Amino acid sequence: MKTALSKSRYTRGLQCHKSLWLYTHEFNLRTKPDAGTTARFNEGHHVGELAQQLFPGGVTIAYDSQNHERQVRKTVSAMKTAKVIYEATFYYDGVLVMADIMRKVRGSWELYEVKSSTGLKDIYQHDIAVQYHVISSSGIKISKACLVHINNEYVRKGAVDVHEFFTTADVTAEVKGEQAEVKKEIARQLKMLDGKEPKIEIGPYCEANYGCDYRSYCWKNIPDNSVFDLGGSKTKRYELYRAGFELLADIPLESVKGQQRFQVESFQKKSTVIEKAELHSFIKTLRYPLCFLDFETFQCAIPPYDGLKPYQQVPFQYSLHTLKSAKGKLQHQEYLAQPHIDPRKEFIDSLLEAIPEDACVLVYNKAFEVDKLKKLAEHFPRKRKRIQQIIDSVVDLMVPFQKRHLYSWKQQGSHSIKAVLPAFVKGMTYEGMEIGGGSAAMEAYHEMGRLIDKPKELAKLRKALLEYCCQDTLAMVRLLEVVEIKSKCK
Questions:
Q1: Confidence at 1, pLDDT banded by 50, 70, 90
Q2: Which pLDDT value is given to residue 449?
C-alpha cells in the first residue's frame, strides 16, 4: 500500500501545497505543537469518543501506525456483520482515510464526521468529501454523509445527553457536488508531491483555518517591524507586501487610511499621543476605594459541571489590588481554585468578600470580566444583587488606550495590555514569565489536575499562576499611574 495522502494531509494541501510538501518531505522543519494545540487535539479526541454514544455498540478499528493495510482488512471484515463501525479505514489510489463513524442502514452506509467545533466550516465539508471519494471508490455505497458538531446552546444538567449535546448536519448533496473537484485536487497534490518544493509566496493562506506549522520556515526572512505588524485588515498587509513594501517605515502614508495610517505615521515619527483633557475626564470617573481586578478562566468542549454550556469560560482565579485612598497602601488579595472542582461558588464567595461594597472596580477589557460576572449572577440568583453592584461599578482601563487618548508608537497598533505595558512602564513585561498569557494560564490550570499526586510540581505551577494573574492587576496599577501623570504633564 503506497500512501501519500490522508484526509488531514488532503485538507492541508487545500490550504497550501507547499505546506503539504514540507510536511511530507521535511517533517522536522515544522514548529512542534504547543501545549494549547495539544490540549485542543486531545479535547477533540474526547469529543469523538463521546459522539460514538450516538450510535452505541459499534466495532472499533484500532489504529496501527505500522500497518494501515491491516486496518483496511479489519474494516472489510467488520463490514460483513457490524451495523456500526468506529474509525473504519479505507484506501484508494494513494489516499487513506479513517471515518469517525459509519452506520449501516438498509444495505448502505451512512458516514459521520465528528468535529469539536460548534458550527459548520468549509474545511469540514472538504474533509468529508475526500472520505466520500475514497470510500465510494472502494465499492461502498454511501447513502448519507453528515457532519456531527457541538450544539452551543446545550446546557449540562446531570449526565451529558449526547443527543442534545451534538447537532447533525446532512451535507450529502454538497459532498456529492464536490466529487469532481476532489478527484482533480488529489491528482494535483500527488503530482506536486513527486516534484521539488513548490515555490509559493507567503499569503493569507498561511493564517487560514488552523494556521500553519511551517510558518517559521516560510516567514524566516520577514524582519521585525514589518508590514505584518500593521493592525486592522490583514488583507491590506498582504497588498502592501505584494506591492514591495516590507517595513512599516517604508509604507507611504497615502496608501493607508484610518487607524492603520495613524499607526504608520506614529511609528515613522516615533511619536507618543497624549490627549490630556480626555485622560483627565477618564480619571474623574474613578473613586476610592479603588480595586484593580483580573480573572483567569478555563473552558471545555464538554461541560464538566451542571449549568455550563460547551466552551463556556469559567473563572477559576482572580487577582485584586486595592487602594483605599489616593495615598493609601496598595493591598493584594487573590484566589486560585483547587483542581477537579467546580470553582464558581468558592470563586464568587471569595470575590464578594474581597471587594468593598462601595468600591470602584477597574479592569482591563471590561466586556470579559462583566460577562463572567453576569454568568455567575445567573447561576447564583441569591447573590445577583451584590454581583450587579460590582458590575455597575466597573470601569475599563483599556478605554484611554483603545481610543488612543494615550498612544505610543511602540504599541504597534495594539491596545492589549501586553502591548501597552512595556510601551509605558519601563522594565515591566510579560516576557520570561513561566506563564505569560491567558491561554497558557488555562492550560496550566488543566495541568494542575494531572499533578494531584506530585505536590512539588503542583506547588510550582500554582506559584506561576498566582504570579501571572498578580502581574495583570499590578500592571493596571502602574498604567493608571501613567495615565494620571500624562493627564497633568505640560
A1: low
A2: 87
Residues 222, 243, single domain; the answer is yes
- Kind and range of the H or E run holding 387: helix 384-392
What are the backbone dihedrals phi and psi of residue 377, each rounded to the nearest 5 degrees, phi first? -65, -35
Model confidence over 416-470: pLDDT tens digits? 999 999 999 998 888 888 988 888 899 999 999 888 889 999 999 999 999 999 9
Residues 396, 286 contacting (CB under 8 angstroms): no
Domain membership of residue 83 (yes or no) is yes
199 lies in some domain: no
In angstroms, rounded to a whole number, what is the distance separating the alpha carbons of residues 216 and 265? 28
Pair (261, 276) in one structural domain: no
**What is the layout of strands, in order, in the sheet containing 360-363?**
331-336, 314-323, 290-298, 360-363, 394-396
Quote the strand ranges of 204-345, DSSP E: 272-274, 290-298, 314-323, 331-336
Region 362-367 average pLDDT: 97
138: pLDDT strictly greater than 80: yes
- Cα dist from 46 to 301, 302, 388, whole Å: 9, 8, 37
- The residues facing 166 across adjacent strands are 150
Print the domain residue range for 65: 5-193
Extract the C-alpha cell encoding 131. Answer: 472520505
Please tell me the distance from the alpha carbon of residue 222 to that of residue 423, in angstroms, as a whole number. Answer: 23
Count of structural domains within the chain: 3
* Same domain, yes or no: 187 and 100: yes
With a CB cutoff of 8 Å and minimum separation 6, the contacts of 157 are 306, 307
CB 377 within 8 A of CB 371: no
- CATH code for the domain in which residue 183 is found: 3.90.320
- The answer to whether the beta carbons of residues 471 and 437 sit under 8 Å apart is no
pTM of the model: 0.91
Angstrom distance (rounded) from CA 63 to CA 78: 15
- Confidence band, pLDDT 50/70/90 cuts, at residue 4: confident
Would you state the pLDDT for residue 490? 64
**Which phi and psi angles does 254 have, rounded to 5°?**
-70, -10
Question: pLDDT for 184-216, tens place per residue?
Answer: 999 999 999 999 999 999 999 998 887 899 999
Cell numbers at 449, concatenated: 489536575
CA distance 398 to 479: 10
